[in-house]
Amino acid sequence: MSMGLLFDATRCVGCGACASACKEQNHLPGEVEERTTAYTWTTVEEKEGAYVRHLCMHCLVPTCASVCPVAALKKTPEGPVVYDSEKCMGCRYCMMACPFDVPKYQWDRAVPIVGKCILCAGRVKEGKPTACAEACPADATLFGSRADLIKEAKKRIRENPGGYLDHIYGQTEAGGTSVMMISNVPFEKLGLKKDLPGEPPALRTWQVLSNIPDFVAVWGVFLYGVHWITARRDVVAQAHPRPRPEGPEAPKDRRPS
Amino acid sequence: MSTAATQPARRPWPGFWTALFAVLFIAFCVVTVIRFTKGLGAVTNLSDRFPWGLWIGFDLLCGVGLAAGAFTLTAVVHLFNLRKFEPIVRPAILTGFLGYIFVIMALMFDLGQPWRIWHALIYWNPHSVMFEVAWCVMLYTTVLTMEFAPVVLERFGFHAPSRIIHGLITPLVIAGVLLSTLHQSSLGSLYLIVPTKLHPLWYSQLLPLFFYISAIGAGIGMVILESYMSKRAFGRHLEMELLEPLARAMVVALGIYGLLRLQTIARNHAFGDIGALTYEGKMFLLEFALGVVIPVVLLSFQKLRTNASWLVTGAFSAVLGFVVNRLNVSVTGMERAAGIRYIPSLMEIIVSVGLVGLGMAVFALTVRYFPIFEPHPEPEPADPEGA
Ligand code: SF4
Ligand code: SF4
Ligand code: SF4
Asked: Are A197 and A72 in the same domain?
């Protein structure tokens, strides 16, 4: 079953328990920082009188995983998008490509790796909730299956007319995400990206990449054909109008530089 | 590098150039040491909000693009069979080869863990454009090495292996053109994934095509520039009868490219940015003037095209415009979404300039000791200096 989180901005009290729990759970050094970094995978920020969490959205078709040349990032069937630091070579394409600007880098290390929330993949696999959801005293971060969370979100929106915007952030954004949010403050005012396409960005690349084998075949035959025609014309030209003293040249026997 | 520094002895102020090279080289070494002991943050202005900077925008995108003269000219000579261009194939291949070495060296600085670059060979992800670029760059560097090998082999009298390569030249050239087509365009595809981040003046589903055509245009521009510079350095004549038709090809390539770009901007409704002269609009105008308008207009006139200094001006403008374009895609166009301005640090610039200098020094040395500019490979020319 694909699990996820539902963050309810109307319930968050801004205590920061989730951020501290994340540090502890994932053995991240240092204090909780103001913005997410390679060492702080989630933060709570006050915006427009509300609180909002920043963390990886765990996209259903993750852009980061699609761009990683060494497949260091992967979507697991349980929901988390996990990272294998042993494979990563540090090209940072995932950072550049992520529509939510989530992956961060260890800029201060000689042997750096990427850091981002992994939806407590180990715990989730054991059937436990994420550390941040467990730590939340206000039920603002809810752990559950994605389907159940959407139901719950819809219920809260329905039962509190005027209490929420009628939108579940993450239901369709960038093709849908496992981490979703509801709020009564417009999401872009909370610092979340707006106008994200409903289809995963990875599809745009795949449209091009999937055509490469066909392209190589056609272009290769075309190029050889051009060569064959022009070389043939040469042979004909040399054989007929004015034969060279040393005799006609075979097409292959050219002298390239 | 020290040999390179003492090499240009015929320049006006040998002392000045040697000193400059020496200072640059020392700075380069210092930055290298800091980069590998203290990490990327210590030498670059890169950050979590701006993860790709000068080394991707200039070294990778421009290094690969400007090396496009190699595949263009090998195709013209060996596939389209226009053999009169043969005398300038070798310098083009040499530029291509050094360009790719330059790119790979730059990646050694830019990758967080460059010693893992071979991971792309064993951990596959065919959905990644970067994966495709990695493979193509690797394979094409191999092809370029083989295309260039006869020059070295013959210089040292190994004729048998060189003859084998000559026999394989057609498949080699076809492989080279295929690989180049793929990765020149896929450098553009790298940016397909950021429709919400890259500014509409540059974002387009046609980015792969744009990168491909503009690389051909600028690659030809580089061939013209090289011929000119080697003419100055070695007192050779400029092969105007070869460069003039190349300039025409460049005009056509850049003309098509320019039109496509304008159509895309119209479709993206981004002309407003140009009219309002926003930061992005100004940078676009600079790029478009240098990279398309000036070279196309200048070199459309036969009078100017056949005049060496106008020809070189046009080619130089095209190359500059190309560089601005790649920096616009990778830096200018991404800044608004990132919410910050990125200006490369001095140390980033030192690495880039140092690598370019290294490449130029190797080019100069190779041209001096190997038969690169000789019109015909058959007669072993009197060696100008001796090895
Ligand atoms: S939010 Fe970004 S980092 Fe997280 S899964 Fe999606 S693309 Fe990957
Ligand atoms: S930085 Fe690492 S995880 Fe991110 S795309 Fe590159 S190799 Fe993959
Ligand atoms: S899910 Fe786990 S890794 Fe992600 S923010 Fe919560 S505690 Fe941290």
From this structure: yes
